[in-house]
């Protein structure tokens, strides 16, 4: 598995854009569709919180799990999975010395792991069944760290806790895991005219298959190709949604089930817990998960030269 620092990825993508293309602090508050007329093409008017108005030929909502664009389209609201995750990044200026491999721990209702993302950085996570303490602690990095080391993860190996204690508090978060109902992804209206969504705005998923960011990049390639090959923007967006629906639905469903199985038996005792853990350790991890993991090896195709939309 190859890990990428999110900031490094965003910087690399932004560097490919012409100067001035990225606009910060621009919260979207409303969307209006302008029908095509004999003298103008279909357009969308965006109104921002600061009063600015933007007229766009095409609107692609990449505004995350709480997407304003997805809500405008009528997609179903994201659901709570009943699980939350704490994510952190630990920095070792002199190097950490760990192999480039993921390490995962399952115990007492939690799932935790480590993954080096460079020679000096280690990404770590802890997934827990959602608890009331989150409301108070989630806004305070110091409280989050204490919750991991003294409560939720106190029984985890010293290697894991040492990494957690070395966390850069600026890169620490605790939030519920949300997902869109797979049926909503499969049948929901993800495009209307010249408006669509991509990434978490389209198909938010829990992180067990590590496909959230990857599937967003797939969306970008398929969307660009569909627009370049279609006669009109609206036809291109419709083709993009038709192409992505099936895979996105599968990813959302597989990720949710995988997380439920991996974590479900860790805090169940007696015979029921034993059966769940038996299935997880001897059947799921050995036979089912490797086949689900094949989902990661997906070729979404290449970008092609633009043939249309010279306007």
UniProtKB/TrEMBL annotation:
<dbReference type="Pfam" id="PF01494">
    <property type="entry name" value="FAD_binding_3"/>
</dbReference>
<dbReference type="InterPro" id="IPR036188">
    <property type="entry name" value="FAD/NAD-bd_sf"/>
</dbReference>
<keyword id="KW-0560">Oxidoreductase</keyword>
<dbReference type="GO" id="GO:0004497">
    <property type="term" value="F:monooxygenase activity"/>
</dbReference>
<dbReference type="GO" id="GO:0071949">
    <property type="term" value="F:FAD binding"/>
</dbReference>
<comment type="similarity">
    <text>Belongs to the 3-hydroxybenzoate 6-hydroxylase family.</text>
</comment>
<protein>
    <recommendedName>
        <fullName>FAD-binding domain-containing protein</fullName>
    </recommendedName>
</protein>
<feature type="domain" description="FAD-binding">
    <location>
        <begin position="20"/>
        <end position="252"/>
    </location>
</feature>
<dbReference type="InterPro" id="IPR044560">
    <property type="entry name" value="MOase"/>
</dbReference>
<dbReference type="InterPro" id="IPR002938">
    <property type="entry name" value="FAD-bd"/>
</dbReference>
<keyword id="KW-0503">Monooxygenase</keyword>
